[in-house]
């Protein structure tokens, strides 16, 4: 019999108050496994800054995935562009892309003339509701990063998401491109909120 024992962390509740701990947990697991990239979802850049600070002098590469322009309001990017020089100096990549687990599907299912759910909505809702909202976010950010060539699809990454704001879900993921979604593997859930 072959197995390994690893610690899983459970936050009492979801939310941004877990971000600093999630960053420490992510860096520690990356170092334990020799993982060279952490992907973190960050709408404004605040959560990404927490991770960049926790990653200083580790040699781990940070990929920040933001909402795309127009996510909440037409033509508006929610990311605080004042953070961009800091991330450039830290060697981080700041990227955005269409949310592959919603995007156009959300526009169709929300349209009263078309209505109804889709298979993509079902995948997203399953990740959100049966495990954690942050897992859906982490998976989606990993797909976006792989599609933009910022992470190799043959190497594990740490992927981090959250519930509304901040970070509360940390996992080890083998990335895939969106067109090969079912090749993506969530290999470890390292931290997540226990109550959702």
Automatic annotation (TrEMBL):
Pyruvate kinase C-terminal domain ranges (all copies): 22-173
Domain of life: Archaea
Pfam families the UniProt entry points to: PK_C
Name of this protein: Pyruvate kinase C-terminal domain-containing protein
């Amino acid at each position: 019999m072959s197995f390994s024992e690893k610690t899983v962390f459970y936050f009492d509740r979801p939310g941004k108050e877990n971000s600093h701990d999630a960053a420490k947990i992510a860096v520690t697991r990356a170092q334990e496994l020799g993982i060279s990239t952490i992907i973190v979802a960050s709408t404004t850049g605040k959560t990404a800054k927490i991770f960049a600070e926790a990653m200083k002098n580790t040699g781990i590469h940070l990929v920040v995935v933001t909402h795309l322009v127009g996510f909440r309001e037409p033509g508006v990017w929610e990311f605080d562009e004042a953070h961009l020089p800091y991330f450039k100096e830290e060697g981080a990549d700041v990227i955005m892309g269409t949310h592959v687990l919603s995007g156009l599907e959300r526009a169709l299912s929300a349209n009263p003339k078309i209505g109804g759910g889709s298979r993509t909505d079902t995948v997203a809702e399953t990740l959100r509701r049966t495990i954690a909202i942050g897992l859906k976010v982490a998976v989606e950010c990993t797909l976006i990063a792989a599609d933009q060539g910022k992470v190799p699809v043959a190497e594990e990454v740490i992927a981090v998401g959250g519930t509304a704001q901040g970070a509360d879900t940390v996992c080890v993921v083998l990335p895939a491109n969106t067109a090969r979604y079912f090749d993506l593997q969530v290999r470890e859930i390292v931290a997540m909120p226990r109550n959702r």
